[in-house]
Amino acid sequence: MNTEPAIELQKNGIMMHRIIYIVFFLQRLLLQFESEEVQLNKTICILVFLALCEIMEEILYHTDCFRNIKVLCAARYVQCLFATVMFAFFQGTVDSAIMIVALLIMFISDFFVATEVLDKTKAVLYLVDVGAPVIVVVFVRMLMHSSDQWMFLFFDILMLFLVLITEAMKLVEYVIQKDDVILEERNRFARVVEKNEDILNMQNKLKNTNNQLNIQKLDLQQANKQIKEANEEMKAQAEIMHYIASSFEVPKISNQITDSIMAVKKLGFCAVYIKENVYLNRHANYVIKTNIGQLQSRIKDQMENIFLEMVADHKSEMVYSHNLKDEIPFLQDVKINSVYIKLLGADDETYGLFMIGDERKDLFSSSMSFYNAIIAQYDIAISNAKIYNEMQQMARKDGLTGINNRIYFNELFKDSVEQMLDKKGCMSVALFDIDKFKSVNDTYGHLAGDEVIKRIAAVAEQCIDKYNGFVCRYGGEEFVAALPDCKLEIAQPIIEELFDEICKQVVHYNEWNITMSVSIGLTAYPEVCKNPDDLLKRADWCMYYAKEHGRHQINIDDGSIEKIG
Q: Least C-beta-crowded within 10 Å: which of 27, 238, 247, 317?
């Protein structure tokens, strides 16, 4: 039997009980103070009775004994006994008989609710159980103390319980009738449902047909979506292949590939890392595309470490969908739920890392053909760029020293001058020559002279590269260094650093230790040289002036030097 409704009804009635107790309490106090007929001992008994009832209910409420229907019924039964005993011993207006009767009726109602009486016989038995002890007490008192008052009291109590029994039976009968009416309504509704069963079956069939049509519609939509994605993927691959065929610049190719992937797949991020010296690139190359704030710098900081760890662990690819935050800590506070990482290149010749991620879960567990095709094309692009750059290296680099040759220097110098004039910038140029180089060749041999030239070229390239300049072997034992965007006052300490570094070098050749010295001429546009086409010419004049005036020095152009000889 479901006792929850009875329990909730009892709990909700607690507040009403408290109000009744307070009213009864105040009424009894007023009677005690206003009427001389009221006996103090009876007032105390009534107040104790109210206190016991209140304490009992508070214990039930706060210990959640309401959940135990047996305890609740027992408590209500005890309250009924208290009230009937009080009614038996307190009669008349001054004894608050009406208030006690009200409490008795309230307790009997709560008792009936707690027991959920739905049978007339049980209703009579429960009321007899409640009233029998009181009737017994009254009957015993009548035998012990013959009194007309007790006789009338007996009939009063008897009449009260007869009325309660009658009303309880009527209430039960009313409830039963209501149940019969509800049951009849349910039966009528069931008959209506049975009559309409064919209609309902037809509706279900129609509903199933509609569901199947909807499923087919969704399948068609999904198929159209897949066809559209496939077309976009093919278009993107065609664009990438066309770009690869027309360009050998790896950074631009990386940009094109990442842009195409982001446009087709709508990912959270796409990143490509190429380590240094793959296609003759001096520095590692990073291309990272994302719309998530601060993620670009985080990926750049970690890609090289991830690449090295995968190479060390001999892992070619990794897919993360679960425990992603533990495996990739820098994504902990970023809404990324799927990550795919793949090494670029063959097992023995890995050259970089491809990394993609998105907030969609399990995105890279299947259908990776598009990405694999892109990576295959990227391998081709890197191979082509490497071959092209090696050929360019052969054409642009000096065969002995490996630094820029004069032809390539002229191209770089021309481009730098054009950029300088466009933005109204500045440039410094230094031309330097090895002092007494013929003596080195005559004394130690031409092979020793070659080692001196190579050493100076290496030092010059390393020094000038730090300041975004470029250097070349200008011819024989002459070298030239250009420093774009450097005024004379900035270029002077750089050239002094170069001069000091060269003069500290010692070439160990066979049993000889060969020291070296250079003479340097330095000029700048627009401070001294007013025409950028004259930069190399004036640097050459300054260098020869230094050689004619003692060698082993830097001569800085002040505008007064002219061609010598």
A: 238
At position 286, the amino acid (one-letter code) is: Y
pLDDT at 13: 67
Give yes or no for a cis peptide into 532 (omega within 30° of 0).
Answer: no
Q: What one-letter code names the amino acid at 134?
A: V
pLDDT in tens, 171-198: 555 556 666 666 777 778 777 767 777 7
End-to-end CA distance of the chain: 124
Question: What 8-state DSSP symbol labels residue 423?
Answer: T
What are the structure tokens assigned to 418, written together?
């054009």
Degrees to nearest 5, angle at CA 123 with 121 and 125: 70
Q: Which helix (H) or strand (E) holds 483?
A: strand 478-484
Q: Please, is 27 exposed, middle or buried when counting C-beta atoms within 10 Å of its C-beta (0-12, 13-18, 19+)? A: middle
CB neighbour class for 178 (10 Å; exposed up to 12, middle 13-18, buried from 19): exposed
Q: 468: Cβ–Cβ under 8 A, 6 or more apart, which residues?
A: 483, 484, 485
Q: Write down the H helix ranges in 328-368.
A: none
Domains of the chain: 4-190 (no CATH), 229-394 (3.30.450.40), 397-556 (3.30.70.270)
Rounded mean pLDDT of the chain? 80
Token pair belonging to 254: 């990386």
Helix (H) or strand (E) holding 273: strand 269-274
Q: Tokens 């069931």 sit at which residue?
A: 190
Phi, psi of 154 (to 5 degrees): -60, -45
| Tokens, residue 333 | 């506070």
CA 237 – CA 245 distance, rounded (Å): 12
Portion of the chain with pLDDT greater than 70, in percent: 78
What count of other Cβ atoms lies within 10 Å of the Cβ of residue 200?
11
Tell me what pLDDT residue 175 has.
56
